[in-house]
Each structure stands twice: as structure tokens, then as C-alpha cells.
């Protein structure tokens, strides 16, 4: 390589021009894309094996073995079929959920700024190659291993590699690893290794695939399944004992006991839940809300408090510098967007120009022309300052590379830059004006007036440093940022998003409280809050520094809709989240800064911005807003509620037919075996994994109801008393009674008399009627379960088309199971006579009417499903 390159090896601080585009492309084909090798995944066969050998499956295998030994090969085969069908089905659903999750991860933005062909460009992180020059600012994730070629006040968080929790300072020449974060300062570095060659890839291949701990929802579901399984086994055991006691042959008793257990265990529940969470996540993604773990879908549904920041989320983050206040007067600047043309008005133009140029020197964001349009590149506020300078200067301003930069952060609230012998400072007035001498007081008087018109106010100052320049190059910021000369104030306008007022109203209707948490001035925050209809009560506007120490008092203060916390620090955000949670709230909190990680993690739902935010915030978040828009949070909550409801829907549906399946055994046992068994084990299996399957899936895909957002949120167990009451006391018994009636009508109609032996053929036909009744009942139940408050005819029959298909499939399966002689024979049933069929069909109106009466009587105040 050239001598120049050698020189850079020795003097790494020489400016790096970066690779040429052509070299980069060639290297990319040589070394491959900058992606980590996929973690070694368990093979699909291993996973399928897992589905066939978990606790319930093993129990069922045992049952199949016993059935075989007991000389019941048909039952044995049927149980094996159940295990396999269930396992395969669960496996397919898990895989689909997994794929959905992976697709979602792929949507996460991952652009890096590099210098190529001597110019700054933005490329996808996967296109980085060794030798690329990467430009990083605080909050960025290092996209590959690199060596710093410039570093100003840099600290890097390497905890993910070393476990060391304090960020380490880095200087020019130091190495840093991909996957770590730049938490402070600014840096450039040359990429030394990418993808599989990077340090993190090495470590990942050493440590095996880690399994994440179970989440609350998983625990809750396991709890449900365990409770049901224990009930099933207990009931089965009691049955076995009772039937042996009443003198039934132990083989038959065993058969019944197995039937009871199999009927009650909801084998397919877990994968169905996982899949419906994945579908919920996918729907959220299509509305620009990206969940980073499936659980968040459910948590979102129970959110009761949204703490949102202002800039970019409630407002458009299209800043426009409209006023410059100096000691000479106020200049107004009327221009459109980031166009450099504008109308100027008012005195003080000369000083205004000085303010703009100084503020611009202490900025990095710029306006650039993309096609015909001028857009912001970098921080929109800084882009607006750049535009202001262009508007006042009427020409392209000079670009100078600063000697030092003290970057903006949420604590300092100012940024300063050393350019030659001059220090330029811009920042929040409270942060800058106290460092200034004469004139600061006069300008300070203007700040409140500007802020209360909704403008963001920035103070600008400078200092001509005495003495030799070299002296200042290694002084701390405090020594430089003093004895400043104030130049003026810039007022920036950032219009609210047009639909925010409406979304806030929707959130309120849904019983969700909204708070604005912002780093901006209280008066600016109050003016915007008023404009978007959040609050017009000045008592609701507080400052971060005034927040009470005690958590209880803080919670009581903040637990009000429309509260505005201004001039907030990241630590105060964390306290806000905690205090609200201690009041029982489920808190969604947005954050975009480097230091927002803890607050995002503390909140039940941490929300980060896909466009404006930092990588650090995205990494800590549960939800990423791809469009940075407040409305997207509410849309995600809506979908979360819908998904939660869907899980309750198919839970109700599954549990309802358990009652109808169990009843024949109860009657048979109570009669001491004198009354024939209406439904056999194989019929129950045909119901559970045959006819029931499709409607359950279709219920999982139910779209959000129109009224999802008109009800207050509710935090409760998935399987609560209401749900069990509806399934076990209302819908289930109705279905069971009609099914047993259909059975009896055929049986007695065929001439059976109590106490007499029965004609096998007659019982088969009667059993067919009972089976048909359950299928019809479930058909009606599937429609009834679409809502917990309104009868199905009020929902529109076509609003869930999937359910119509599922219903048709269910009926087709019924016809097959009844009228295809070999199938019917195996299941132990025969086509019922017309009388039996008529009673069976009555299950449809029976269920619908019972459900309607239940809904009328209960008239729940806050239903969710
Ligand atoms: P927000 O919550 O509205 O995003 P920030 O925390 O970003 O607020 O900003 C807080 C305050 O810090 C602003 O009101 C402004 O005065 C100042 N500020 C923001 N960005 C910069 C910057 N790039 N340089 C200097 N000061 C800034
Ligand atoms: Mg901000």
C-alpha cells in the first residue's frame, strides 16, 4: 500500500479519507457481509422431538402403552395419533412464531455513517468492510471492531463483552469492539474486523446459545395448563376408583379414566397462544410498531400510563428558527422548512447573523438538498440553525473542523466547540446564561415570553480564549466554558403533529393517562401541551428539579392525566416510571437518549425511536416506533388489547367443550354404568384435535374490535373467574344438556328402557347425535366467543372471514366423521336418525340464546374480551 497509508499506521490521528466506493465493494465480496454468523440453532427435528416428549406428551405415551397392554389397541393408536398430531401442530406454530419474530428483528434500522470517497455517507451496517472509516456519536452501537482515529471525550460501554459496568474512556489509537456502545463523546475509527472475525463473534461461538428466562406470560400460561392438568388427572383418578368400586371391569374403567384425562388436558393451548402473540406482533409491525419480544404484545394491552417525550413524538421534529433575539433587538425570519430562502424582518440583522454563525459552529447537523427538497441531516434543531445561517448569510457558510468538541448531553444541556482561538457555546438558556457576563440578564427576561409561545429557546455565546492555543487543548470543559460573552437567543418552532390531539383523546377514551416528559423549558412544554390538548392547567406543569424526594408523594403528584414534567434528567425519568408503577400503573415510557436505557428498562414497556433515537435506547426498549410517532404507541396498545382478548376468546372456546365431553362420563359413573356412555374417548379426541382446531385458530386472528379503545384497561389473569364462569357454568352446560338430550331422544326413541341391556347399533346412532350436538354447539360457541359483551349478530357475520372458513371446515369434518362408515366405526358412532339430528342442531340457537341472556344480565362495566 502507499506511503500515505503507512504514515497513517504510525500517526493514526491523521485525517482518514476512507475507502473508495469501488474498493469497499470489492472488499465486501472478499470478506463477506458484516453480520454475525447465525447462532447455532437447535435442528427442527430436535425441536419436534421436544414437542413429542414434554411432560404431557410423555403422560400420553404412557397411557398409550398401558392401553396397548390392556388389549385396547385402537385406543392406543388413537392416543399416539393425538400426541403426534398435536406435536407436529405445536411445532409448526412455534416455527411460524419464530419466523415472525426474526422478520421483525430484520426491520430494526441499522445504518452507519462512513467516510467513503472522501465524503460522509450512510450505509447499512452489513456493508461495512475492514478499512472503512466509521463516524460515531454518543448513543451509537459500534458496528464492527475498530481502532479510533479521532476521539473526543469518548467513553465506551463494554459491559456486553466484559461484564464491566462502568464505561471506559477511549483515546485515539485505542481499539474497541463491535456490539459495544459509545456512551459519550464523538469518534471516528477505522474498521479492523467485521462479521465472523469480530471479537463478539468469537465470544458468541464460545458460549453456547443462551436460553432466555421465562417471561411472566409464559409463567402464567404454564400455570393455567398445570391447573387444568391437575384437575384432569384428579378427576380421572376418581373416575377410575369409582368405576372399579361399582364393579366395572378394570379395563373398561381404565379406558374411561383415560378418556376423562385426555378430554380435559388442553394440549394445544401453549402453541396457539404463542402463535397469536406472533400474529399480534406482525400486525403491530404493519402499523410501524416493532415489538422486540412477543411478551410485550400482551403487556401493551394492559398499559395504563404513557409517558411520552415531546420533540419528534408529539411534534414533527421539523424545526424552524423563527426568531433571533440580541441586544440590538429581535429579528424575525419567515421561511419554509429547510429552504435557505426566507423573508427577514426587524432590527438586529447584523447581530443575528453573528448569533447564527456562532450557533452553527457549535453544531453538527446540517441541511442538505436531496433532489429538489432541503432536508435535515443529523439533529433537526441543528439543521435549522444551519438553515438560519444560510438565510442570513445568503451564501454557503464555511465549514471548519473544530479542534475540540464538548458534546450535548441531557445533563449539561449545552454543546461547545473550540475553533482556533474561539470557543462557541449553544444550549438551554439556564445552562448557558449563568456562564455569561454583561447582557445575559437582559436576554434572560425574554426567555419566558418566547417559550410561552411554544418556541424552543437556545442561548448562544462565545469566548475568545487568552494565551496560547495549545494550552486550551487539554483543559477540562469547566475551564473553557466560563466568562462567556452572550450573543443572543434563537427561538425555534416545532409544529405539533397534526393528529396528535385526536390520538390523545383516543388514549383518554381508552382510560389511559398521558404525561409529557421533556428536557425542554417548562413554558415551551406548557405551550405545546396546550396546543395539542394535553392540558391547559399550569398546575400540571412541573420541573424535574422540583420533583419531591419521596416516592409516594411523587407518585401522587404525577398520577394525573396530562401532567407535564419539564427540564427532566434521565435519572428523574427513571424515578417517574418507578413512582407510577408503585401506584399500580403499567407504564409505557419513551426515551431516545444515551442515558435513557435505565428508564426504558424500568418501564413495563420501554419505547424507543426507530429514526431519531440512539442505538442504546433501542437496545433497552421493548417497542420501537419505526415512525417516531406518538399515535403508533396507541395503535400498538390497541393491537395488544385485541391480542389479549383473542387469547381469552379461544381459551373460553376450548374450555366450553370440555364440559360437554366430561358430562357423559359423569352420568355414566353416577348411574353405576347403567346408562350407556354418550361419547367415547375417540370421539372426544376427534372433537379436540379435529373439529375444534380451525375455529380456535380463527378466533386467534380476530381483528381488533371497534370498541377496543373505548374501555379502560384491565389487569387480570387470563383465566379469571368471569372466563371460567362463562365456559363452565353457562356455555358448557348448555352444550352438554343439548348433547345429552340428543343422545337420549335417539336412545329412548329407539325403544331402550332403563335397566334393560341396550342394542349396540342404537347406542352408536345415539352417540352420533350427541357428537353432532357438540360440534354444532362449538360452532355457535366460536361465534359467541368473538365478544364478551355483544351477541354475534351485532358484530357482522363477515367481519372475521377466517372464522367462516373454519366453521365450514368444522361442518365438513362432522359429515366425514358421521357418514364415512370406516371413520364412523373407528370413532364408535353411526349416522343419527332425524330426531337426533334435529335436537343436535338446536345446540346452535341454544348456545346463542344462553350467551345472549348471559351478556344481557351481566352487562359488565369493563369487559376486555
Ligand atoms: P426533548 O425532551 O424535547 O427532546 P432534549 O433533552 O433533547 O429535550 O433537550 C433539552 C434542552 O437541551 C433543549 O430545550 C435545548 O435547550 C437543549 N438542547 C437540545 N439539543 C441541543 C443541542 N444539540 N445542542 C445544545 N443544546 C441542546
Ligand atoms: Mg431531544
From TrEMBL:
Q: Which Pfam families match?
A: Cation_ATPase_C, Cation_ATPase_N, E1-E2_ATPase, Hydrolase
Q: Which residues form the Cation-transporting P-type ATPase N-terminal domain?
A: 10-72
In Swiss-Prot or TrEMBL terms, this protein is called Cation-transporting P-type ATPase
**Keyword annotations for this protein?**
ATP-binding, Cell membrane, Membrane, Nucleotide-binding, Translocase, Transmembrane, Transmembrane helix
Recorded hits in InterPro entries, A to Z, give: ATPase_P-typ_cation-transptr_C (IPR006068), ATPase_P-typ_cation-transptr_N (IPR004014), ATPase_P-typ_cyto_dom_N (IPR023299), ATPase_P-typ_P_site (IPR018303), ATPase_P-typ_TM_dom_sf (IPR023298), ATPase_P-typ_transduc_dom_A_sf (IPR008250), ATPase_P-type_domA (IPR059000), Cation_transp_ATPase_P-type (IPR050510)
In the record, the note on similarity to other proteins reads: Belongs to the cation transport ATPase (P-type) (TC 3.A.3) family. Type IIA subfamily.
Top-level division of the source organism's lineage:
Bacteria
Where do the coiled-coil regions begin and end? Answer: none
Q: How does it sit in the membrane?
A: Multi-pass membrane protein
Record localization: Cell membrane
Which residues are listed as membrane-spanning?
48-69, 75-92, 227-248, 254-278, 723-750, 762-781, 802-820, 835-854
Question: Could you tell me what reaction this enzyme catalyses?
Answer: ATP + H2O = ADP + phosphate + H(+)
